Each structure stands twice: as structure tokens, then as C-alpha cells.
């Protein structure tokens, strides 16, 4: 009887492990965007700015944490992912590298609220934020957490890489 229970337990163990594992996260690959539900109307710049300022108030002061995606800590691409998902119903790719391939490339002079701005902060490191207005962008700074910064700041001006517009 004990041998039977041992064999039965061992044969069921893989099923129990799989059943108790968290479901795999749905991810988007390089440059692919998933739209969930509501339509994103980026032409209504007033509404887009209001949504971005609302998200800034929600996330303001949240510390930077590589790979983080909650109020205890968030990284730059996690912030853009969360803001786009909540406010615009758009699931961006999760990493800065893949976000930098999403949407359409645009000139810096063509920036509108909601556009993604990218920076090369080191030889292989990348950073992303969301353009709000007046050369300000929302991002998760490694040193100060979630904040608004200006593209006119000498540091960001020097590190600016490119911008992309994600819309449907």
C-alpha cells in the first residue's frame, strides 16, 4: 500500500507543480504592440496630457527598481508599459530595446503628448520616457525615481537618441 501511494504521489507531482505555477506573462516581441479594449485617441492632446499628468501624480516619487512594475519600484520601460496599458489600452513591449522599435520613428521637432522619447545613457544602456508637453517628459530616473524632466537639460539633450509615435 505504501509503495502504491509513493508511486501515485510521484506520478502526480509534475501535474501539481505545473498547476501551481504562475501563468506565463503575455509578452510582446520586438516592436509588436497589443491593443486591449478601448481605442487610444492621441489626436486629443488635451486628454492625453491630462492622462499623463494623472499617471505622474500616481507614480510620482516611486523609486527606480530594475524590472519593477509597481509602486514599490519601477524601471523606465515598466513605467511606459504601465501608463500605456492603463491610460490608452495599449500593451507595449516590456523592454526599452523592444519599445524603441514600436510605432513610427518621428523627428524630435514633431513630438506630441504621448510620444516615446529614447536616450542612449551609456554605450549599451537605453532609457525611455513619455513626452508630455513643453519639452517635458515623464520617466523613471535611476537616481530620483518617477519624475518629470526636460529635454532641454544638458544631460538629456546630449543623450537623446530618437522618438517614436505609438498610435492606432
From TrEMBL:
- MF (Gene Ontology): cysteine-type peptidase activity
Q: Which Gene3D superfamilies match?
A: endopeptidase domain like (from Nostoc punctiforme) (3.90.1720.10)
- Is Protease given among the entry's keywords? yes
Matching Pfam families:
NLPC_P60 (PF00877)
User: Cross-referenced InterPro entries, in alphabetical order?
Assistant: Murein_DD/LD_carboxypeptidase (IPR052062), NLP_P60_dom (IPR000064), Papain-like_cys_pep_sf (IPR038765)
Which residue spans traverse the membrane?
none
Q: Which UniProt keywords apply?
A: Hydrolase, Protease, Signal, Thiol protease
Q: Among its keywords, does the record have Hydrolase?
A: yes
Note the PROSITE patterns from the entry.
NLPC_P60 (PS51935), PROKAR_LIPOPROTEIN (PS51257)
Instruction: Tell me which residues make up the NlpC/P60 domain.
Output: 46-167
> What family does the entry list?
Belongs to the peptidase C40 family.
Annotated protein name in UniProt: C40 family peptidase
Organism from which the protein derives: Oceanospirillum sediminis
> Source taxonomy lineage?
Bacteria, Pseudomonadati, Pseudomonadota, Gammaproteobacteria, Oceanospirillales
Amino acid at each position: 500500500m505504501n509503495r502504491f501511494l509513493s508511486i501515485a504521489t510521484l506520478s502526480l507531482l509534475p501535474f501539481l507543480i505545473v498547476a501551481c505555477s504562475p501563468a506565463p506573462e503575455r509578452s510582446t516581441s520586438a516592436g509588436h504592440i497589443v491593443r486591449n479594449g478601448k481605442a487610444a485617441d492621441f489626436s486629443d492632446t488635451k486628454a492625453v496630457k491630462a492622462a499623463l499628468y494623472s499617471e505622474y501624480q500616481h507614480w510620482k516619487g516611486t523609486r527606480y527598481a530594475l524590472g519593477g512594475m509597481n509602486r514599490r519600484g519601477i524601471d523606465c520601460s515598466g513605467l511606459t508599459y504601465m501608463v500605456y496599458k492603463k491610460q490608452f489600452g495599449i500593451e507595449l513591449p516590456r523592454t526599452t530595446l523592444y519599445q524603441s522599435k514600436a510605432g513610427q520613428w518621428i523627428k524630435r521637432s514633431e513630438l506630441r503628448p504621448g510620444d516615446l522619447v529614447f536616450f542612449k545613457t551609456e554605450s549599451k544602456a537605453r532609457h525611455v520616457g513619455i513626452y508630455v508637453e513643453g519639452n517635458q517628459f515623464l520617466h523613471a530616473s535611476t537616481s530620483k525615481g518617477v519624475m518629470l524632466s526636460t529635454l532641454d537639460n544638458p544631460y538629456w539633450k546630449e543623450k537623446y537618441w530618437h522618438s517614436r509615435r505609438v498610435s492606432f
